[in-house]
Amino acid sequence: MEVESKSAAGQTVWTASQSTFVHTFLANFIEEGLKTSTGFKKVHLNKCAEALNEKFKLNRTGDHIGNHLKTLRRRYVKINQLRSLSGALWDEEQYIISLDHEHYRNHFENPKNKGDDEYINKPLPYYGNLATIFGNSVATGQFAKSSNEPLGVDADCTAENDDNGAATVMTNGQAQSDVNDANGASCSAATRPYKKAKVVEAANESLAAVLERSTQTLANAIKEAAVANRALPEGLFSIVDNLPGFEIQDKSRYFAHLVANPDTARAFAELPLLYKISWMTMFINANF
């Protein structure tokens, strides 16, 4: 069981599995059409906090979720900035920003880019959920932290609400936040306008909808296939054990489920990483 954690400066610290739970939960909200043009309403952030607390035995609030959403937004902006680097290649399936040796060395010659290492030449499985949540609503780097600031730590800011209960994660008009750090200094963001999120066109439908249809198609194919072969795919345990963002008990439960359902196991083994994470998340949420 994961426990509540705070840094010495009184900041809320998020583990990878807790953060994965939050952005997966909110991405599902969007799939259900619950996000408004001004962002997530306070009631939705509170529901996410309630589910997070139940799973991890924490004491987080909707304000904590709103603050972490801002951190995830900065992470999303940073990834998109790095994707546009000269010489960078983008793997759309595994969500990997690749730089060859020369471009990698040149980029990190600048000490300011030291923190970019966590995003380059390695899978970023959470990017799909972030793209679903933020989409084209984040077009600039105005919220980006510097590369050396930890993105797994949120200041205990309080998310303000508009008259309709929408958090200032995305506001209709303008937003302003003020936070006091451990030394009493104020970390305030100047009032700045936000454009309303544009209606997503059919050609740019959310990743969550694509995942849902793909998952349903695979599930239907498995149901209709009268396959007598009960052999499990090679390396199934390693595939499940290496999935990021899940607890050992969750991996154990899902591995047992796959062993009992070889057809599902074979289909699962062939999926890209993000689809594997989506399948396992849906199974855990539906059964535990």
Structural account:
The structure is a single chain. It is globular, with a radius of gyration of 20 Å. The protein has helices at residues 16-31, 42-56, 62-83, 101-108, 127-134, 207-224, 236-241, 248-260, 262-269, 273-287; strands at 12-13, 89-91, 96-98, 153-154, 173-180, 186-194. With 288 residues, the chain is mostly helical. It has ten helices and six strands. Helices cover 45% and strands 9% of the residues. It has two domains: 12-196, no CATH class; 206-287, no CATH class. The strands form three sheets. Strands 1-4 form a two-stranded antiparallel ribbon.
Which residues form runs of ≥5 with pLDDT under 50? 139-151, 155-203
Structural class: mainly alpha
The general outline is: globular
How many domains make up the coordinates? 2
Order of helices and strands: EHHHEEHHEEEHHHHH
Residue-averaged pLDDT: 75
Q: How helical, in percent, are the residues?
A: 40-55%
Give the strand order of the largest sheet, numbering strands 1, 2, ... along the chain: 1-4
Distance between the termini: 14 Å
Radius of gyration: 20 Å
For the secondary structure, the number of strands is 6
Strand content: 5-15%
Tally of contiguous helical segments: 10
Outline the biggest β-sheet. Answer: 2 strands, antiparallel
Short description:
This protein is mainly alpha-helical and 288 residues long. The protein is built from 10 helices and 6 strands. Helix content is 45%, strand content 9%.
Q: How do the helices and strands line up, and which of them pair or pack?
A:
Layout: E1 12-13, H1 16-31, H2 42-56, H3 62-83, E2 89-91, E3 96-98, H4 101-108, H5 127-134, E4 153-154, E5 173-180, E6 186-194, H6 207-224, H7 236-241, H8 248-260, H9 262-269, H10 273-287
Antiparallel strand pairs: 1-4, 2-3, 5-6
Helix pairs in contact: 1-2, 1-5, 2-3, 3-5, 8-9
